[in-house]
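Hello again, I could really use a second opinion on something today. I've been staring at a protein lately and its backbone has me curious. Can you walk me through what the tokens say about the fold? Take your time with it, there's no hurry, and the full record follows here:
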Amino acid sequence: MAQHRPLPIDPLAEAKRQWLAHGWTDAAEGMTVVISVMRAQQLLLARVDAALKPFELSFARYEVLRLLAFSRRGRLPLSSVVSRLQVHATTVTSTAERLVRDGLIVREPHPHDGRAAMLALTDAGRALVERATTALNSEVFSDPGITPEDAADLVGIVARLRKDAGDFTDPRPQPDPL
């Protein structure tokens, strides 16, 4: 990997300056927000990819394995994986095929729907995802590169953006336990 040297200026600040200079004042702040979030995603994904590389996992493959490992029985319908990961069915199917090929999951018939498939974690898949999670926790998640206060603010801001975009709704209030 090439050595990263910081740029002498912030290219996003320069882009905003250019937007303003070209008279796009109504869009300058929004452009800066969008590009800032996209650049932050690139930086964080590079760290995640580096942590997962020794396990020969992409983040997409890791997410499927982790989701299955979180389930009660280590198996979920393909449609549930698609829904929970919020990606297209074709993407999950392609990812699942590679995981099956590598012996990390198996496809099983759905017990109640002959047209649906179940994805089930193998022992090898469970062991791998546990090792990969340990690496991600120590190399990325325990120190994402911002203070805990900034992290809480950022998560709250992005959650509002996601909710306003229709990504999720607030859960219904749960009754108090008896």
User: Anything to note?
Assistant: Residues 25-52 form the longest helix (28 residues). Strands lie at 75-77, 105-109, 117-121. Helices lie at 11-21, 25-52, 59-70, 78-85, 89-101, 123-141, 148-164. The chain has a mean pLDDT of 93.
